[in-house]
Amino acid sequence: MKKIVCITLVVLCFSNNTKAQNIQIVKFNDLKQLVYNQSDTTYIVNFFASWCKPCIQEIPVFLSFAKGTKKNKVKLVFVSLDLKTNQEKLLQIVEKYNLQNVYLLNETNANNWINKIGKHWSGAIPATLIIKKGKHKKFIANAISSETLFKLTK
Amino acid sequence: MKTQKTLSIILIAIAIFFTNSFTPKTNKELVDFKLKNVDGNLVSLSNFPNAKGFIIIFTCNHCPFAKLYPERLNNLNLKYKELGVPLIAISSTDTIMYEEDTYPNMVIKAKDEHFNFPYLFDEMQTVAKNFKAQKTPHAFVIWKENEKWIVKYNGAIDDNGMEPEKVTESYVANAVDALLKGKNILVKETKSIGCQIAFRK
After folding, report:
1. Is B1 part of any domain?
2. Count of structural domains within chain B
3. Which residues pair with B140 in a beta bridge?
4. What interface predicted TM-score (ipTM) does this complex get?
5. Which chain A residues are Cβ-neighbours of B135 within 8 angstroms?
6. Contact: B195, A125; criterion CB under 8 Å
């Protein structure tokens, strides 16, 4: 019996660790360094949160789009605006869709960084930024369709 | 292929249109409204003949960011109502998408959180459109000038949703304080993360 409990605990710890590794907690400047570079990769940076229904609805759009593109050409980056004190639901979503490159933004005052993403962005999510060669190609302060994605990443 | 291209152009045009048209502006003139409060009565700005201004908060039940603020909203109303600047909260969320935001649930929320201010149901979303409110919470400070209601501040309530004790800039309170003293508002517009008010087509 003891043995089973021990094994279960070890398995539980392990599975929790792998899940947590999928989400990195970052500051805005860390995020900037990740996506602004001169490589040929187009970055699709999606701002979302686990509690935001339209955000979750559009995840499959991004995933199927990425599947249809050449490797290394397009990179999806998911920036979670979930509260850092409550990551449970976020973990569930990351696991469900097997999301990669998920970053939880650890900033208290959004007024300091929102304008750097989009001048016309009020901070409502979902919102998506497309970056190519370190430059903003397009910012969409709304849900995005796969047609728009194709057009914008060309 | 051609239709697809045309479609994408249309979609991009729509996206650009939305981005620009929903950018709120200060100094915008507002029309009065009449919305149902959680006590069943209709509320308009004209119900407060002595008001110098209002703190209008677009909020809702479901949004985690809105959930951080009820106590702070009560405190704002407690302080500024007496000074002629009452607070009014409005929920304009699409209730088809979020059942938590229906009128009966608003009534429960107002009771549970001991709201000391009107919590109005903007069922048709017309008031949110008039204000160009985009998310919850989204705060506005409006002021009476020549019998007209003018937007003087729009944006965040303060600079730290998560940790109220670490707030260093109380944007809404600062704006109201400045207006009460007849001074210029230093920060007229701020940004914050919130739940999008999805406008029904």
Report:
1. no
2. 1
3. B56, B154
4. 0.75
5. 122-125
6. yes
Q: Are B91 and B122 in contact (CB under 8 A)?
A: yes
Confidence of residue A17 (pLDDT cuts 50, 70, 90): very low
Percent of chain A exceeding pLDDT 70 equals 86
Query: d(Cα A69, Cα B56) in Å, to the nearest integer?
Result: 46
Contacts of A128 (CB under 8 A, 6+ apart): A44, A45, A46, A47, A139, A140, A144
Determine the residue among A122, A125, A153 to mutate to test chain B binding: the one whose Cβ has the most chain B Cβ atoms within 10 Å.
A122
> A20-153 adopts what CATH topology?
Glutaredoxin (3.40.30)
CATH number of domain containing B120: 3.40.30.10
- pLDDT reading at B18 higher than 60: no
Calpha distance B194→B151 (Å, rounded)? 20
**Predicted TM-score (pTM) of this structure:** 0.83
Interface test with A, best of B8, B101, B199 (most A CBs within 10 A): B8
